[in-house]
From TrEMBL:
Domain of life: Bacteria
InterPro entries associated with the record: Kinase-like_dom_sf (IPR011009), PASTA_dom (IPR005543), Prot_kinase_dom (IPR000719), Ser/Thr_kinase_AS (IPR008271)
UniProt-recorded Gene Ontology molecular function terms: kinase activity
Record domain PASTA: where: 377-444, 517-585
Ranges for domain Protein kinase: 19-275
Pfam families xrefs: PASTA (PF03793), Pkinase (PF00069)
Organism: Gryllotalpicola reticulitermitis
EC code: 2.7.11.1
Protein name: non-specific serine/threonine protein kinase
Annotated Gene3D superfamilies: 3.30.10.20, Phosphorylase Kinase, domain 1, Transferase(Phosphotransferase) domain 1
Reaction catalyzed: L-seryl-[protein] + ATP = O-phospho-L-seryl-[protein] + ADP + H(+); L-threonyl-[protein] + ATP = O-phospho-L-threonyl-[protein] + ADP + H(+)
Length: 680
């Protein structure tokens, strides 16, 4: 078994007299993260320890401390909290909030891609945390799915500010190219310049990956990907996933514009736009604008005319009328003319007033009729309700209650379960006149299809077969060692939704994501090889080795490998897995009995060996043909007349210090004897 302390010496260690290390959570380029217990406050924390080989690098150490300072300045529910920072001997560490759960990368690895609604929900939390950082003058500079934590209790937090810098300092040139290459902005690639808009670009790439299940730019070498970031435009996600709505398409293009000046200035700006997109995607109805109240100034023609008669001139002696009939007639005529004029003016004013009152009544009636027609009558506008992913009977009832007519149209859908609404035409939120017809697309589920056999195909051939069957290839290819499938060929294929094995092909449905396991060749054969050669062979194959059982062997030399067993107890072997090596200790050795001591007779020596073998049944030493030293006048065979020969010496004999020789089972003992017959 592998010695855990040899694998990671920090496991079980007490850091700074306070933090008890329990297990390892993750390992990155700068540090390793452990689960630890804060003995002082009795709580679980995440302990981030900088790699020992970076401890002597002042730049890395400063960046490590900068992460603590940057994150500690952010008190936001969507940012991982930093509790403490310190150094224990030559080891720098951070103490952070522990969030049991998974990362966004794990979620994408399991499901391939997310729905627009899921993408919006996650990115609202991420952008809220990033907006707090930008507001505090901090640029993250390493945004990627691995740094978005999805807690088991539903919380979403942004972490790993290891590359963060103050916004005022982040715009300088000549700095090293930092961050993950797949999410670097064009200005970082070409000029080494980073500010808040560089974070926005990374967010745009993440949204594209969440919607499509893959990154927009790919290549075998990092420089190929960097070149594409600097020179190519990020495509619309809907080209890969037709279910992406246009507002999200536009949001991705805005965030990933190659010109930083054309992107959102910071996370707050992008978040505000995302809220608008969310209302559109979730079927929100735009707020109605306020009617403008206008004051209409009457024109001169609309003003009632008032006729003012001229005042009569004052009478004087010279101008006074003379008494008499003629004078009386002129006076009466003048009075009659004045009365007639006054009556005509009054009639004109009364007639014009009634006419204006009638016009006002007509306008009021028309306004009331128009208001009824467009407010409650046939001309009223109603919003198409959001019924996507609702059962079809529920959706039809909602449309009916909204005074809309509806017709059903069966369609195959990759995202909506059978019997639920996949889409409506017009879309949710559109304002329509009452009685307008709405077409409801009802999902029939995934379209049945046939998929060919994938096992044994090369990786490229398997990918082509999957895409030809209108399905998606899982973003993570599982590399495994195999003694039966050639390197680069497919070992197994499983459906991501339910884990069903479809390696042999057969009946299938479109749109599913298929995860592939690909062979990297056989595990190197290291049995019956020296331990050093075996370790070198495993390292070359990107495998680790661990200490297995030490066994005695009569056939395998000491220090050679007897057996090699995967540490995962029968599961598939993947790169970086551990192989346990059983090493031979050579044969079991037993002390050789002393058969020559005191020069006994050969007969006595034979009896002594039998007695020894009976007492040590595993030894079973064998007596070889004795060698005769000196004269043998009668030519007797020692084995025929053992009583007439005495033992002079034996091989193997005792060591120079007098200790018995050590030999393996069945070793032959050769005795040297001399003739010893009493003559005369």
């Amino acid at each position: 078994m592998t010695n855990t302390s040899q694998t990671d010496p920090l496991l079980g260690r007490l850091i700074d007299g306070r933090y008890q290390v329990r297990s390892r959570i993750a390992r990155g380029g700068m540090a390793t993260v452990y689960l630890a217990t804060d003995l002082r406050l009795e709580r679980r924390v995440a302990l981030k320890v900088m790699h020992s080989h970076l401890a002597d690098d002042t730049n890395f150490k400063n960046r490590f401390v900068q992460e603590a300072r940057s994150t500690a300045r952010l008190a936001h529910p969507n940012v991982v909290n930093v509790f403490d920072q310190g150094q224990d001997e030559d080891m720098a560490y951070l103490v952070m909030e522990y969030l049991p759960g998974i990362t966004l990368r794990d979620l994408l690895r399991d499901y391939g891609k997310l729905t627009p609604e899921q993408t919006i929900d996650i990115m609202e939390a991420v952008l809220a945390g990033l907006a707090a950082a930008h507001r505090a003058g901090i640029v993250h500079r390493d945004l990627k799915p691995e740094n978005v934590l999805l807690a088991d209790d539903g919380r979403i937090k942004l972490g790993d500010f290891g590359l963060a810098r103050a916004a005022a300092n982040a715009t300088g040139t000549g700095q090293a190219l930092l961050g993950t290459i797949a999410y670097l902005s064009p200005e970082l690639v070409t000029r080494g310049v980073a500010d808040t808009r560089s974070d926005i670009y990374a967010i745009g790439i993440m949204i594209y990956e969440m919607l499509t299940g893959e990154q927009p730019f790919q290549g075998e070498q990092p420089m190929q990907i960097a070149y594409q970031h600097a020179n190519d435009t990020v495509p619309r996600p809907s080209l890969k996933n037709p279910l992406v709505p246009p507002p999200l398409d536009d949001l991705v293009l805005w965030a990933t514009n190659r010109d930083p000046e054309q992107r959102p200035s910071d996370a707050r700006t992008l978040l505000d736009k995302l809220y608008e997109v969310a209302r559109s995607v979730h079927g929100g109805v735009p707020d109605a604008g306020l009617d403008v109240t206008r004051v209409i100034t009457p024109t001169p023609n609309d003003t009632l005319a008032t006729t003012v008669l001229p005042s009569p001139a004052p009478l004087t002696a010279a101008s006074a009328p003379l008494a008499g009939p003629a004078t009386q007639v002129r006076s009466e005529a003048t009075a009659t003319d004045a009365v007639s004029k006054l009556a005509a003016v009054s009639r004109h004013r009364r007639g014009r007033g009634w006419w204006l009152f009638g016009v006002l009544l007509l306008i009021a009636a028309l306004a009331a009729a128009t208001g009824w027609y467009f407010g409650a009558g046939p001309g009223a506008l109603v919003a198409v309700p959001k019924v996507i992913q609702s059962p079809v009977d529920v959706a039809m009832a909602q449309l009916k209650s909204s005074s809309l007519t509806a017709s059903q149209r069966p369609v195959y859908s990759c995202a909506v379960p059978q019997g639920q609404v996949a889409a409506t035409t017009p879309a949710a939120g559109r304002l329509l006149h009452k009685g307008t017809k709405v077409t409801v697309d009802v999902s029939r589920g995934h379209q049945p299809n046939q998929i060919p056999k994938l096992g044994g195909l090369t990786l490229d051939a398997a990918k082509s077969a999957i895409t030809d069957a209108r399905s998606l290839v899982g973003t993570s290819i599982d590399e495994q060692f195999s003694s039966t499938v050639g390197s680069g060929d497919v070992i197994a294929a499983t459906r991501a939704s339910d884990g069903k094995d479809i390696t042999a092909g057969g009946a299938y449905t479109q749109c599913d994501t298929i995860n592939l396991a690909v062979s990297v060749g056989a595990v190197p054969s290291v049995v019956n090889k020296p331990l050093g050669d075996a370790q070198a062979a495993l390292r070359k194959a990107n495998l680790k080795w661990g200490q297995g059982q030490a066994e005695h062997s009569a056939t395998v030399p000491k220090g050679w490998v007897i057996a090699a067993t995967p540490a995962n107890q029968g599961g598939p072997v993947r790169p970086n897995d551990t192989i346990l090596l059983d090493v031979s200790q050579g044969p079991v050795l037993y002390p050789v009995p002393d058969l020559a001591g005191g020069n006994p007779s050969l007969q006595d020596a034979i009896a002594s060996l039998k007695t020894y073998n009976d007492a040590n049944p595993n030894a079973q030493f064998v007596l070889d043909t004795p060698k005769v030293k000196g004269a043998n006048p009668f030519g007797l065979k020692p084995t025929d007349y053992p009583q007439y020969f005495k033992v002079v010496s034996q091989t193997p004999d005792k060591a120079s210090d007098g200790t018995p020789a050590q030999e393996q089972k069945g070793t032959k003992i050769t005795l040297t004897v001399s003739f010893d017959f009493p003559l005369g």
